C-alpha cells in the first residue's frame, strides 16, 4: 500500500527520488566526460531519453539499432540538441546471435573504453515466432541477445574500470511483468507453440532479465579478489506509453494505454530509474538488486531464486555456444 501511495503521489524514497522524478533530475550535476555507454533500444521511448541525457552530460553514447538509418536518426536528433555530444551508431538485431557477434566485432574495432552497458531494448511480439536461431522471439530478443552482448563485452567493462578507477555498470531493464511468468521455466518448452501465451512469454523474458542481473552480480562479487569493480542491476521503469507493443495488436495496445493514461509515467520519468542505476553515485557498490522509481524494490520470490538464476545462466551459455 505504501508503494501504491508513493507511486501516485510521487513521494520520494530513500534515494531522494520517486515516481515523478525524471532522468534529468537524476543526472543533475553529474559529469560523464570520458565515459562510454552502449544503450540498446535507444531509437525511441525511454531508451532514446536515456541516450539523450547521458550524451548531454558528456558521455560517448553508442546507439545500435536493427536498421543503421534508425541509429543515424538518433545521432542526428541528439546532435541537433547538443552539438558537442559524441554519438556512435551500429547495427544490432538482438534476436540474432550472429548480429550480436557482428556488432561486438565492429565495436571492438573502435578501440573505445566501455564503462556501462544498458540493456534497454525489448519487444512483446504477442504471437509465437522463432528467432533466426529458432528460439521463441521474446526470449531470444529480451534475454538471449542481451546475455551474449554482455558476455562478449564484459571483459571490456572490467578492463575500463580497472584502468580508470570508475565503477563499471551493467543495467538490465526488466519489468513488473516478470510476475506473470510461470514459477518455473522448463527450457525444453520455450518453443512449445501449443502452450504459448503473450503475457507468459513476455513475463518469462523479463524474469530472465532479473535472473541474469542477479547471477551476473554474484559472479562478479566472486571475482573481487581480481579487483573487479563492476555492478549489475535490474529494474522496472514503470508503465509508459512506448512502442513496446508495436508487433502486437495495435488497436488493443492503443486502447489500453488510452484508458490507463492517468496512471502512466512520462518518458522522462520512465527513463529515470535506468539513468539512476547507470550513473548515480548512490548506486556505487550496489549490485544484484531490483529497482523501481529509483529505489530498491521487491521482485517476486521466483526472481530471487538463485538456483533458478544459475540454471538460466547454464542454459544460456550452452545455447550461445551451440550457435557460434
TrEMBL record:
Superkingdom of origin: Eukaryota
Annotated SUPFAM superfamilies: NAD(P)-binding Rossmann-fold domains
Any Pfam family: adh_short
CDD domains (alphabetical): retinol-DH_like_SDR_c_like
Gene3D superfamilies: NAD(P)-binding Rossmann-like Domain (3.40.50.720)
PANTHER family: SHORT-CHAIN DEHYDROGENASE TIC 32, CHLOROPLASTIC-LIKE (PTHR48476)
UniProt name for this protein: Uncharacterized protein
The species this protein was found in: Selaginella moellendorffii (Spikemoss)
Taxonomic path: Eukaryota, Viridiplantae, Streptophyta, Embryophyta, Tracheophyta
